[in-house]
Amino acid sequence: MKIYFAGSIRGGRQDAALYEQIIQYLKSFGEVLTEHVGDPALTSAGDDGPNDRFIHDRDLEWLQNSDVIVAEVTAVSMGVGYEIGRAVEMGKPVLCLFREGANSNLSAMIGGCKDIKMIHYSDFEELKKPLQQYLISFNASK
Length: 142
Prior knowledge:
- It contains five helices and five strands.
- By secondary structure, the protein is of the alpha/beta class.
- It has one domain: Rossmann fold.
- The longest helix is centred in the C-terminal third of the chain and has 18 residues, at 124-141.
């Protein structure tokens, strides 16, 4: 299973350590195409490619080649919203993760989209079981 993980880069790196935990967990279910999102060395400058066009085209190719999209949507990010919208448009299964109590509001465009599955959680340990259930169920349905 090829997993596209989306998390805030230019919108802020405050959750980078959490992204790394999630990515490491996701790797037990398949190949994570976007491991760099959890890299603590990656800054909010989004310096993960030579220019914006390269990043856009590379990430869209990964999105097209993925089987499932998992997006952590607690930190507001235009890029993550764009990726989710494109994934829905492509008919890809999208799972969004929202951390309750993080002093953030879930976007109505994400929370109200019937094509997006949601997991609300408070910490990584609480997230693991429903994430595992979703990915095992998804893999079994392929």
